[in-house]
C-alpha cells in the first residue's frame, strides 16, 4: 500500500497573514495616528519657519550690503566730482569703473576687470569673474556713470551654511519629536493595553474580575473605574438573574410536584384518596401556578419597559374597592383617610399595585388594616398600614426583591409567592413613582407609594 502523504500545513501563510493584520492594526492604532499627526504638524511648522527664517536672514544680510554699497557709490561720486577720474585710479580691493556716456571705461580701480562692468538701474546681484557681486550705478553731472561692485560671496556662504544647518537640524528635530511622541503615547496607552487584555479574559462566568486602575488619575484611570463599575453592575445583574431563575424554577416546581404526588398516590392507592380531593389539589395548585406565571410575565413586561397606558385613573375608586374586598374577607379596614386623587397610568397595573399592597397588609396583620390617599404638592400619596409585626429597617429594601419572604412568612400558604412587592415596585417605577416602607401607627408596617398626580 502506498504511503499517504501528509499535506503540509500552511503555517507560513497563516503566520504571514497574522503578521500583516498585526502590522495594519499597529499603524491604525491611536499611538501611530497621534505620532503621525504630531510629526506632520511639527514638520510643517519647522519647514515653514525655516524658509521664513532664511528669507528674513537673506533680506537682512543682503540689505545691509545694499545700503553699504549705495553709501559707497554716493561717496565715490562726490570724490570724482571733486577730483576727477584720478579719484578712482588709486583704489584697491574695490570693483569701480568710471564710464563715459558712450560706454567706454574712463577710469578703473586696481581690482576691476578690463571688460566693462554690467550696469543696472537698481542694485542687482550679478556674477563677475565667477564671483557674486552686487552692482550699483551712479549718474554724475558730467554725464559719466560710476559703476561699483560689492562682493557678497561671504554673505552668500553664510546663508548657505545656515541653510545647510537647517536642512540637517529640521529632519533631526522631526525625527526626535516622532520618537518622543511614540514613546510617550506608548507609556500613556500602556494601561489601555492591560485593560484590553483583562477585558478579553472576562466572560459571563467571570464577571467578578476587574480591570487594573492606573495611579495616573487621568482619563484612562477614570475609564478603568467606569469599566469596573459597569462590571460590578453586570455581575450584580447576572447574580440576580441566576437567583431569579433558581427561585422561579423552585417556585414553579413546587405546585407541579404537589399535583404529581397526589396523582401518583391516587393511582397507586385509590382507596386512600378520592377524585374530589385530587381535583381540589390540582385546581388549587394550578391556580397557584397560574398566578406565578402571570406575575412572572408582568414583571418581564415591566423590566422590558413596555409602554404604560396613559389613562386618567381615579386612584380613590381603586382604594375603596380594595377596602371593600378586604372587609368582605373579615379584615377590619379603616378607609376614612381615603381622599380624591387622580393619576395617569394603566388602570390594570395600578389596580394590581393596590391589590398586592392590600393582600400583603391583610396577610401580615392581626386583623386591622388602614388605607389612606391624598394629594400633596402635585403628588398622589397612597398609604397602606397594618397592625402586624412590622418589617425590620434592615429588611425594608430586600423585601422588594423577587421571591423574598421574611423569616416569619416562609410558608407559601401564608407568605404568598414572594413576587407581590416586586410587582408593586415595578408598577410604581413604570408610573414614575416611588415606594418606601415606614413604621405604622398601628404597630406594623406602613407602605407609602408616591405617584405624580394628574394635572
What can you tell me about this protein's structure?
The protein is of the alpha+beta class and 455 residues long. 55% of the residues lie in helices and 17% in strands. The protein is built from ten helices and twelve strands. It has helices at residues 11-27, 30-83, 86-89, 153-201, 219-268, 275-303, 315-328, 347-364, 412-415, 420-430; strands at 95-99, 105-108, 124-128, 131-139, 145-151, 311-314, 332-338, 342-345, 368-376, 379-386, 434-439, 445-452. The protein is rod-shaped and about 155 Å long.
- The structure class reads alpha+beta
Put simply, the count of helices is 10
Strand fraction equals: 15-25%
Give the CA-based shape.
Answer: rod-shaped
- The strands making up the biggest β-sheet line up spatially as 2-1-5-4-3
* Unreliable runs: 1-14, 408-415
**For the CA atoms, what is the radius of gyration?**
50 Å
Measure the end-to-end span: 93 Å
The topology string of helices and strands comes to HHHEEEEEHHHEHEEHEEHHEE
How many DSSP E strands? Answer: 12
- Give a quick account of the main beta sheet: strands, pairing sense, barrel closure: 5 strands, antiparallel
Q: Into which percent range does the helicity of residues fall?
A: 40-55%
Q: Average pLDDT value? A: 82
Amino acid at each position: 500500500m502506498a504511503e499517504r502523504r501528509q499535506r503540509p500545513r500552511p503555517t507560513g501563510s497563516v503566520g504571514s497573514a497574522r503578521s500583516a493584520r498585526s502590522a495594519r492594526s499597529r499603524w491604525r492604532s491611536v499611538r501611530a495616528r497621534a505620532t503621525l499627526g504630531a510629526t506632520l504638524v511639527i514638520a510643517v511648522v519647522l519647514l515653514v519657519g525655516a524658509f521664513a527664517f532664511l528669507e528674513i536672514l537673506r533680506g537682512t544680510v543682503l540689505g545691509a550690503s545694499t545700503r553699504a554699497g549705495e553709501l559707497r557709490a554716493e561717496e565715490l561720486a562726490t570724490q570724482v566730482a571733486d577730483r576727477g577720474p584720478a579719484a578712482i585710479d588709486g583704489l584697491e580691493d574695490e570693483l569701480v569703473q568710471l564710464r563715459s556716456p558712450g560706454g567706454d571705461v574712463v577710469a578703473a580701480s586696481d581690482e576691476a576687470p578690463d571688460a566693462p562692468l554690467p550696469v543696472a538701474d537698481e542694485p542687482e546681484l550679478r556674477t563677475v569673474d565667477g564671483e557674486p557681486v552686487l552692482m550699483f550705478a551712479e549718474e554724475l553731472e558730467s554725464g559719466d556713470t560710476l559703476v561699483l561692485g560689492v562682493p557678497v560671496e561671504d554673505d552668500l556662504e553664510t546663508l548657505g551654511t545656515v541653510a545647510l544647518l537647517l536642512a540637517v537640524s529640521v529632519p533631526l528635530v522631526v525625527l526626535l519629536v516622532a520618537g518622543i511622541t511614540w514613546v510617550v503615547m506608548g507609556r500613556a496607552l500602556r494601561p489601555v493595553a492591560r485593560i484590553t487584555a483583562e477585558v478579553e479574559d472576562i466572560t459571563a462566568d467571570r464577571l467578578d474580575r476587574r480591570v487594573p486602575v492606573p495611579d495616573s488619575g487621568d482619563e484612562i484611570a477614570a475609564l478603568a473605574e467606569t469599566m469596573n463599575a459597569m462590571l460590578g453592575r453586570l455581575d450584580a445583574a447576572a447574580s440576580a438573574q441566576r437567583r431569579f431563575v433558581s427561585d422561579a424554577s423552585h417556585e414553579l416546581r413546587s405546585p407541579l410536584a404537589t399535583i404529581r404526588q397526589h396523582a401518583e398516590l391516587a393511582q397507586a392507592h385509590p382507596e386512600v384518596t378520592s377524585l374530589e380531593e385530587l381535583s381540589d389539589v390540582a385546581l388549587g395548585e394550578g391556580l397557584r401556578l397560574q398566578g406565578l406565571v402571570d406575575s412572572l410575565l408582568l414583571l418581564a413586561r415591566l423590566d422590558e419597559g413596555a409602554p404604560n397606558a396613559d389613562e386618567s385613573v381615579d386612584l380613590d375608586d381603586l382604594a375603596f374597592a380594595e377596602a371593600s374586598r378586604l372587609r368582605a374577607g373579615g379584615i377590619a379596614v379603616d378607609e376614612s383617610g381615603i381622599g380624591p386623587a387622580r393619576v395617569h397610568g394603566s388602570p390594570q397595573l395600578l389596580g394590581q399595585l393596590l391589590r398586592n399592597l392590600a393582600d400583603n397588609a391583610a396577610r401580615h396583620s392581626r386583623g386591622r388594616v388602614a388605607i389612606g390617599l391624598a394629594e400633596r404638592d402635585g403628588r398622589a400619596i397612597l398609604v397602606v398600614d397594618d397592625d402586624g409585626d412590622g418589617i425590620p429597617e434592615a429588611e425594608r429594601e430586600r423585601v422588594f426583591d423577587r421571591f423574598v419572604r421574611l423569616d416569619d412568612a416562609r410558608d407559601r400558604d401564608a407568605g404568598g409567592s414572594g413576587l407581590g412587592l416586586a410587582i408593586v415596585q415595578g408598577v410604581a417605577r413604570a408610573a414614575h413613582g416611588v415606594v418606601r416602607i415606614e413604621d405604622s401607627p398601628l404597630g406594623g408596617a406602613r407602605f407609602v407609594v408616591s405617584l405624580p398626580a394628574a394635572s
